[in-house]
């Protein structure tokens, strides 16, 4: 009741009053914090609402019908297929019927999903623990779109940076910007970790085999350096010449220990070969912290900004991804990627829930994990070019929704978040599919591509290589859904003692998402679908999907260990302040390894 009132009043209030609090910045901050908190807050948990309880009760109903029987209802299947902008989503292999869908839409209403989506697009400070808006959608807005936060349209700033990237990458690629010894910079190492790495790596891996993009990248190499393991640094420079290499240091905060050490390591590699003045020509940065960029020794003119309203894991469409990818493929290819993401943003913002791909995926994911009790999700692209998609989504999903408290900070009485993992098909089939067919139930996302990036048809084969791949894409969801009964096995004369081993229970849910092709545009679409799907889940669970306090504790403990290692090695100081186990391990490590 109270929440309904708040939802009803707040949008009107903010429209009518405008930013009155801008007169007093402190009051403004507090006001923003409170209003976002109120907007996102759940005065009761979503699990206390009637729609949640109805869904709980509905679980028993749906369990009575096997998926193979649900699949016999053609009208149902037809209603669970959706086409948008060249993409096809088939969710008929979900353990759900029309009643499930109705109840999920009612739950979405109870969770104020529509208002929360609008709050995100309206630039409200929905990341309340950091008092920030969440505006990655502005990164791919077209020039004429208006996306405001705190009374300011951010789209012109976004395009200012994009234009700077276009200009810089054109100069590097054309050879008008050269290195310290006058040579063209044909190789790029992007140094960054987590959100400053995984998204760009996924997109790069997907574009690498696209004929149009590959043509644009001819003669150039893009590598990533993420892990602080010295092996990764050695690999990143192996075969590269500092004279022809540009290093892009990518860090939102410019404080991340691993990235900064790797950046110093590559700075040393460059200056040892070319002298300290070479940094100006061979190192650039992407960050929100331009002061620290300058302190590091990178010319602020060679820094590409983004904003604190872009979460690290949502930053691939900022300079974090756009700069390295433009250097490799040219800005016009990357612009298509942004356009693909923008197409999904508009769809997500405006399509009715029954026809809204991220909303349907998000609601059914909540259904699978929270109500049916399947906590994991397998991401299975039948495309080798998408081999880095699951690692990227692992971060987006698990860092976003791996939370134990509600947005108000109250412990959740239910589990939020999902365990994401995946591998491209068919490789995964020879790895963990045994478990998903006969062991635990793991809802699967099958992602297929209609037209391959490569066309191979060997003489004498009955299908092309891509058809072979796709035969598996089409077969696996049905194998999971239908299973195989003992009766079927008996009719095949399978010996009785093997029947339990060869039986497949089936009734295992999956989505099929079919992309027409794998080009920059479709890759952008795919990215945005998953980003929004994950937001939908967080909105329903009533958590803050946009902070990540859970990564802090390990970082601060590592800093204590770092200090100890330094003190022991340089001053021979005894190990102290750790528990018995860590002390014993540290002693072994220090005894065995010379620095
Ligand atoms: O440790 C997790 C994290 O904070 C991520 O959220 C972020 O993407 C990553 O580290 C890198 O942070 P930065 O871009 O500030 O170096």
What does this entry show, briefly?
This protein is α/β, with parallel strands linked by helices and 595 residues long. The chain is 50% helix and 10% strand. The chain has a six-stranded mixed sheet with strand order 1-2-13-12-10-11, with helices on both faces. A five-stranded parallel sheet has the order 6-5-7-8-9, sandwiched between helices.
Topology at a glance:
Blueprint (H helix, E strand, L loop, with lengths): L1 H16 L7 H16 L9 H14 L3 H4 L3 H6 L1 E4 L2 E4 L7 H13 L2 H9 L26 E2 L2 E2 L1 H20 L12 E5 L6 H11 L2 H6 L4 E5 L4 H8 L7 E6 L6 H18 L4 H4 E5 L2 H7 L6 E3 L13 H11 L1 H20 L6 H15 L4 E6 L7 H13 L17 E4 L10 H6 L5 E6 L15 H18 L3 H6 L7 H4 L7 E6 L4 H22 L10 H20 L8 H13 L3
Parallel strand pairs: 5-6, 5-7, 7-8, 8-9, 10-11, 10-12, 12-13
Antiparallel strand pairs: 1-2, 2-13, 3-4
Helix pairs in contact: 3-6, 8-15, 9-15, 9-18, 15-16, 16-23, 17-23, 18-23
**Alpha carbon gyration radius:** 26 Å
User: Outline, from the CA principal axes?
Assistant: globular
**What would you call the quaternary organization?**
single chain
Largest sheet: 6 strands, mixed
Which structural class do the helices and strands define?
alpha/beta
Distance between the termini: 63 Å
The percentage of residues in β strands lies in 5-15%
Mean pLDDT: 93
Number of discrete helical segments: 25
Tally of DSSP β-strands: 13
């Amino acid at each position: 009741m109270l929440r309904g009132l708040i939802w009803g009043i707040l949008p009107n209030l903010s429209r009518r009053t405008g930013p009155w609090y801008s007169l007093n910045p402190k009051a403004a901050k507090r006001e923003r914090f409170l209003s976002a908190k109120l907007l996102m807050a759940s005065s009761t948990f979503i699990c206390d609402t009637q729609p949640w309880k109805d869904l709980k009760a509905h679980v028993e109903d749906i369990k009575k019908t096997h998926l193979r029987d649900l699949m016999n209802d053609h009208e149902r299947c037809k209603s669970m297929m959706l086409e948008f902008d060249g993409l096809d989503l088939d969710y008929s292999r979900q353990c759900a019927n029309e009643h499930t869908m109705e109840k999920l839409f009612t739950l979405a209403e109870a969770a104020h999903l529509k208002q929360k989506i609008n709050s995100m697009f309206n630039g409200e400070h929905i990341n309340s623990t950091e008092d920030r808006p969440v505006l990655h959608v502005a990164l791919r807005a077209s020039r004429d779109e208006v996306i405001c936060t705190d009374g300011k349209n951010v789209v012109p700033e976004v395009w200012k940076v994009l234009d700077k990237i276009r200009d810089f990458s054109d100069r590097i690629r054309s050879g008008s910007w050269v290195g310290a010894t006058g040579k063209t910079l044909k190789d790029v190492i992007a140094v960054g970790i987590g959100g400053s790495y995984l998204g760009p790596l996924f997109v790069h891996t997907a574009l690498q085999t696209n004929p149009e993009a590959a043509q644009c990248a001819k003669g150039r190499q893009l590598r990533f350096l993420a892990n602080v393991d010295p092996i990764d640094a050695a690999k990143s420079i192996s075969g590269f010449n500092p004279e022809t290499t540009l290093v892009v240091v990518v860090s939102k905060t410019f404080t991340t220990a691993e990235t900064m050490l790797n950046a110093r390591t590559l700075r040393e590699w460059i200056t040892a070969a070319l002298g300290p003045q070479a940094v100006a020509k061979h190192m650039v940065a992407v960050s929100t912290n331009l002061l620290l960029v300058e302190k590091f020794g990178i010319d602020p003119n060679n820094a590409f900004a983004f904003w604190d309203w872009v979460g690290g894991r949502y930053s691939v469409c900022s300079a974090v991804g756009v700069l390295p990818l433009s250097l490799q493929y040219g800005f016009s290819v990357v612009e298509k990627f942004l356009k693909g993401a923008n197409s999904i943003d508009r769809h997500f913002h405006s399509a009715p829930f029954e026809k809204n791909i991220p909303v349907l995926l998000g609601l059914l994911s909540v259904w699978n994990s929270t109500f049916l009790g399947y906590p994991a999700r397998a991401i299975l692209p039948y495309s080798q070019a998408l081999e880095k998609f699951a690692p990227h989504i692992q971060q987006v999903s698990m860092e976003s929704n791996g939370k134990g408290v509600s947005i108000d900070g109250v412990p959740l009485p239910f589990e939020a978040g999902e365990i994401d993992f995946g591998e491209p098909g068919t490789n995964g089939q020879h790895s963990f599919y045994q478990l998903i067919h006969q062991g635990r139930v793991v809802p699967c996302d099958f992602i297929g591509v209609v037209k391959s990036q490569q066309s191979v048809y060997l003489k004498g084969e009955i299908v092309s290589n891509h058809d072979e791949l796709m035969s598996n894409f089409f077969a696996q969801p049905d194998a999971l859904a239908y299973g195989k009964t003992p009766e079927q096995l008996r009719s095949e004369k399978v010996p009785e003692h093997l029947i339990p081993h060869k039986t497949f229970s089936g009734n295992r849910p999956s989505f099929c998402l079919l992309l027409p092709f794998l080009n920059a545009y479709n890759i952008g679409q795919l990215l945005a679908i998953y980003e929004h799907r994950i937001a939908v889940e967080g909105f329903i669970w009533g958590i803050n999907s946009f902070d990540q306090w859970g990564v802090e504790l390990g970082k601060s403990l590592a800093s204590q260990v770092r200090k100890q290692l330094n003190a022991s090695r340089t001053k021979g100081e005894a190990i102290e302040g750790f528990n018995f186990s860590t002390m014993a391990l540290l002693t072994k490590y220090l005894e065995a390894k010379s620095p």
